[in-house]
Amino acid sequence: MRLAILAFTLGILALQFQPELPGGPILGASGAIGLALLVAARRWPSLAVPGAALIGFCWAGGWAMHRLADELPSGNEGRDVEVVGVVAGLPQRFENGVRFDVDVEHASLVVPARISLAWYRGWRPQEDDEFHLPPAIRAGERWRLTVRLKRPHGNMNPHGFDFEAWLFERGIRATGYVRKADGNRRMADIVMAPGYLIERWRQNIRGHFQRALADAPFAGVLVALAIGDQRAIEPELWQVFARTGVTHLLSVSGLHVTMIAGLAAWLAGWAWRRSSRLMLRLPAQKAAAAAGFLAALVYCLLAGFAVPAQRTLYMLAVVALALWIGRTTAASRVLALALLLVLLLDPWAALAAGFWVSFGAVGLLLYVGAGRLGERHWLATWGRAQWAVTIGMVPALLALFQQFSLVSPMANAIAIPVVSLMVTPLALIGALPFGEPLLWLAHWLTEWLMRFLHWLSATDWAVWQ
């Protein structure tokens, strides 16, 4: 099974590197042949690998054809279009206005299902004249807007950020801006759908952080740890994180999700064992597993469901399910199933650097933890894992980012326990009403950590390029 899942992944990657999307007949033939090979693999197991690769190729191609079909006709570029839609994610303020994504419900012309808009402030600002300022935009609101759209365009600089691929991965097939029009108005304060309610919840938490930490220099770091919104972090800080090798801690990583799930499982198991009636109904171990998975699910939804969080959630789901049905599951099988689920739901996850860093790091940890190097003290085990990930990820980091932090072991030795065991829990609890004192405590710890990271980053030998 594990080899078949790896072959499925390679099939998806093969599709991504094609100079142009194969036609429907080629994709259909690939899927049919792959399915036939998988059926024949019941008698000849070696056929499962090429069969899974062909299925992966067909799967990614089918998703790509579906998304490419959702496009803005060239004749509708640059024309005024009246759309009715729902703000689909966290709006982002910038110097000249606000940007936000919209799920289109109705439009006067043919437009894609999801578009990205900018609402600029007026170019003739007057003192105290709010007519020229964009209104407050909140996730989950329904708006009627007059917009002008264009197809996504981005620079193709070598090793640069691929803006078009980033939009394509997110399902955004047109970008544009809001035109001044009398018909621009908010039609509903909230659309009662689960996805929009979650985005509004995330925005309310972000607003809570911004009010409580209005002038704090590292408020964006706490927002990133709590809800996965990294866009408030200054570019200078990203340079420090990259040079010290702790960028992974600024996303809602598997380490954070596992920590939250473990804490919830421990609390649930402790409370469950206090009641003999509950113990007779369900073993405490199963109740703890269910509580841990639910806590991980809530945290992943709060954090925007990024790839590292997805991977960990699926792994926890497999472990919890195995515990409930009384079966033991190898760690490598759990990781493979998580890989399969991520790519089934989002084939474009394989284009993200975080996808490879996330699964690669977990794979190295599983290898080191498999007991191949003998039993040692827990401190030696922790150090061995740290060095295994640090050294083992060098080729991937050099290929993906063209640099590697030489001070990463020292930085992570301090940053991992501080961020995962102190800052992140304090930030999450501080998101609750009246939690401002805990937010300031989390910020104080972050400030001290940043002083240490700045010192490491300033050394001449911090990065190998």
Layout of helices and strands:
Layout: H1 2-16, H2 24-40, H3 48-69, E1 80-87, E2 92-94, E3 97-107, E4 114-120, E5 142-150, H4 163-169, E6 175-178, E7 185-188, H5 194-212, H6 219-227, H7 235-244, H8 254-272, H9 276-281, H10 284-302, H11 307-325, H12 331-345, H13 353-368, H14 378-392, H15 394-401, E8 404-405, H16 408-430, H17 436-457, E9 463-464
Parallel strand pairs: 4-6
Antiparallel strand pairs: 1-3, 1-5, 2-3, 3-4, 5-6, 5-7, 8-9
Helix pairs in contact: 1-3, 1-12, 2-3, 5-6, 6-16, 7-17, 8-10, 8-11, 8-16, 10-11, 11-12, 12-13, 13-14, 16-17
Describe this structure in words.
The protein is an alpha+beta fold. Helices cover 56% and strands 11% of the residues. The protein is built from 17 helices and 9 strands. The strands form 2 sheets. A 5-stranded mixed β-barrel has the order 1-3-4-6-5. A hairpin with a 2-residue loop joins strand 2 (92-94) and strand 3 (97-107). Helix 10 (284-302) runs antiparallel to helix 11. The longest helix is centred in the C-terminal third of the chain and has 23 residues, at 408-430. The protein is globular, with a radius of gyration of 24 Å. The two termini are 38 Å apart. The relative contact order is 0.09.
